[in-house]
Write a structure and sequence with these properties.
- The protein is an alpha/beta fold.
- Helices cover 31% and strands 24% of the residues.
- Helix 4 packs parallel to helix 5 and helix 9 runs parallel beside helix 11.
- The relative contact order is 0.14.
Length: 420
């Protein structure tokens, strides 16, 4: 699938944000470990979340479509596997990492693998922590990288882990911990990246009956049980970012519904960055509104708490009246693609200049022109390229269907808004 985009101006967008991918993943895991049947209302149905559901099903948990979304019959903290399990999670990093922790609840080995890119993404710190807690961890291929074979039981107790590669390593341990005999006392040896995702994890755990103690870089999870419940998934701020960005660069207004202004999602900070660049943002009854005249200024901003909107912000920065420096992003090298390299490649192809630092990029605007972009199977590269295309015109995006990973309706939504 290929998509071509022309330059637009004075846009008027009203869309509904799709459900949160991060919260759907976590709700699926908590419901799977609970002691009854949970209903997950308005879950995100996308490639990544479907893979998480299938992984849980392969471990013996029933996940079925229901009138409101998904019905999950929990296993009460012990997967009823009766033989080894292999999970091919393709390019779904969140799925692999979260399921690696809960694989300790299987008495038989669970091997988690994925695409060629997945096998380049490190999981060593997570594997080391699982092994230190009493689990069995084997790497059939390259040590510290998928495939990774995990088997319980894990006794739990005290462990350490670094937090500067992926917050998902920490979330994986936290979500499995209530089902371990000794729970978990986890100390971070380095501060976490994407810290708001840990807030999302602990909030979902609390919603399903498990309270996590936190004191700075230490987490305490008592042994106990998740309890089945009905859980409604809120809208996704990272998916909403593309529509706000389009209004910012093209001029006009975007209204995005189904967003919680008080959300724990770190990507909620994205609209604050656009405000700093010159856009106006406010809340109305039906959604969050962003208005822009298209005149934007470069800024310096730390996006460590909002990693999934870094590429979107870099796209907007190409249209500003001065350089933008985005910091706190070193860990983006370990995503579905090397997203720092992707920023440099895509923006360079349309005429902007990108300077790459160890933990930052500097985007210097230039006369922009069209280009053909291969997103290299990264959904966020494709959607951020759409922002550039609508602002500059002449954009052709190859393999545009890769957006199905997180936002299957993205192109249809743009078409419905009259932008495609």
């Amino acid at each position: 699938m290929e998509v071509s985009l022309s330059r637009r101006s004075d846009v008027d967008i009203r869309v509904a944000a799709p459900p949160s991918k991060s919260l759907t993943h976590r709700a699926l895991v908590a419901a799977a470990l609970a002691d009854g049947v949970s209903e997950i209302l308005r879950p995100l149905v996308a490639e990544d979340t479907v893979l998480t559901g299938r992984g849980l099903e392969a471990c013996g948990v029933a996940v079925e479509a229901s009138a409101g979304g998904l019905s999950v019959r929990g296993c009460g903290g012990r997967f009823p596997t009766d033989s080894p399990v292999v999970l091919d999670l393709r390019n779904a990093g969140t799925s692999l990492r979260l399921l690696a922790g809960v694989a300790t609840l299987s008495p038989f080995p669970v091997t988690l693998t994925g695409s060629a890119r997945m096998q380049e993404r490190p999981v060593g710190p997570l594997g080391d922590a699982i092994a230190a807690l009493g689990g069995s961890v084997v790497y059939p291929g390259r040590s510290g990288y998928p495939p990774i074979a995990v088997r319980g039981p894990v006794r739990g107790g005290a462990a350490t882990i670094r937090g500067d590669i992926s917050s998902q390593f920490i979330s994986s341990l936290l979500m499995a911990a209530p089902c371990w005999e000794e729970g978990l006392d986890l100390a971070l040896t380095r501060p976490p990246v994407s810290a708001p995702y840990l807030d999302l994890t602990t909030a979902v755990m609390a919603a399903f009956g498990v309270r996590v103690g936190r004191d700075g870089g230490r987490f305490a999870v008592p042994p106990g049980a998740y309890h089945a419940r009905t859980y409604a998934v809120e809208g996704d701020w990272s998916s909403a970012s593309y529509f706000f960005a389009v209004a910012a660069v093209c001029g006009g207004q975007a209204v995005v519904e189904h967003l919680d202004p008080a959300s724990l999602q770190g990507d909620r900070l994205f609209v604050g960055a656009l405000e700093a660049m010159g856009a106006s943002v406010w809340r109305e009854k039906d959604g969050i509104v962003l208005e822009s005249d298209g005149r934007l200024d470069g800024i310096e901003v730390d996006m460590a708490a909002a990693p999934d909107t870094v590429q979107t912000l870099a796209a907007v920065a190409a249209f500003a009246r001065g350089p933008t420096r985005i910091t706190g992003i070193a860990h983006l090298r370990y995503k579905e693609s090397d997203r720092i390299a992707a920023i440099a490649r895509v923006l360079g192809s349309v005429g902007a200049r990108v300077t790459v630092e160890q933990d930052a990029v500097v985007v210097t605007p230039g006369p922009l022109h069209g280009a053909t972009v291969d997103p290299a199977n990264d959904h966020r590269t494709a959607m951020s390229a759409a922002v550039i295309g609508l602002g500059a015109g002449g954009m052709r995006i190859l393999d545009a269907g890769c957006v199905d990973k997180s936002f299957p309706g993205f192109w249809k939504t743009l078409r419905g808004a009259g932008l495609l």
